[in-house]
Amino acid sequence: MKLKKLTTALILATLPATGAFAAALDRSGQSIAAFLQPGNYFEAGISVLDPNVSGKMNSTAPASNPTLGALANTSLDDMAGDYYFPQAALKLQLTDNFSFGIIYDQPFGADATYSSSDATLSAPGAPGAFQLMGETTEVEVKSQNISMLFGFQPIENINIYGGGVYQTVKGDVKLRGIAYGANQALGLYNASIKEDSAVGWLAGLAYQIPEIALKASVTYRSEIKHEAGTTESGVSALLGGPFSLNSNTNITTPQSVNLDFQTGIMANTVAFANVRWVDWSNFAIRPTAFGNASETLGALGRGPVGGFDLVAYTDDQINATVGIGRKINEQWAGNVSVGWDSGAGNPVSTLGPTEGYWNVGLGVQFSPAPNYFIAGGVKYFMLGDAEAQPASMFGTNESVAKFEDNDAWAYGLKIGYKF
């Protein structure tokens, strides 16, 4: 079972099958598989996600917000927007012992829009009626990463690598409705987080036995700290009525560890697995005006003492995928995979109301010539049921809505070239 007989299947097995609907804000999975390809290599691809996430208000109101009882059992329309993200990588084998690579991806993101089925409730002192999530509540988060890797191969079987990471993040949030306190608290709140750049690092170790197509690697990525300029505006009795504030918001994207493994199991066939851990339990975003209002609510007994974050998670994420890739002939190969994601805690934020998933995936690869290929894949995600809560209920078992029986489809396309 020589390496040349497995080349096509090897590349397919490392195809990060078409994007993710992972826990918290995790998206690309931050794979470095392209950097571990032999020789000089280039790839570019795009992933598209089409989620279907809807829910229903609880039949009884939480004790901390009894006015929500007027919206019992109100249906919440599909709130997860379609999105896509590109990726690209270049790997150069400079000498027998040294390699260099650049990887571009969009590791973290969110795109959610809430609306309710025309349910409204008048709020005392408020100008008119407010929908639960209506007008609507929206969140959008985008990030970009450029990872620069340097590898040292003291012998053929070992690759020690590390490098720097340049990252940008930006976001926009709009909260509406009595779930966030309507005009009395944070129910008319906007935050525009301007794009900010910062740097981090990564390091890892890979081991391979080419004759049996065995390859194993572990990669650590550091957290990256941002201080992003933020404009907050809205109406809140807790902040003296209409307000507008420019300040800086601290955002620290989480550290993570990726474990990747593959091995030949028979002629023209490889088995592969990857496991990813992300430190979401230490992630939080608290803009200044939002934080001031939340601290006031806490002092009034309407939220945690000391305030609460706009976005935070209780648990770390663990994600795992296993599969088999097989070379069918000199031009065609395919793979199948099964994936699982733990989620990042339940109840979950109303800005991302799913709790992990199971998925199944199929991939196919066509190689018109030995040095390049076109690969595509599709995954079906069975999203975990979740209890959703606004930020003021974080750390409690209270929730305002249930999201059940949701799913998503993901599609991916990639080209690769060896030179």
From TrEMBL:
Keywords: Cell outer membrane, Membrane, Signal, Transmembrane, Transmembrane beta strand. One of its GO terms (molecular function) is long-chain fatty acid transporting porin activity. Its main location: membrane. It is found in: Cell outer membrane. The keyword Nucleotide-binding does not apply. InterPro entries: OMPP1/FadL/TodX. It is a multi-pass membrane protein. One of its GO terms (cellular component) is cell outer membrane. Residues 1-22 form the signal peptide. Belongs to the OmpP1/FadL family. PANTHER family: OUTER MEMBRANE PROTEIN NMB0088-RELATED. This is Transporter.
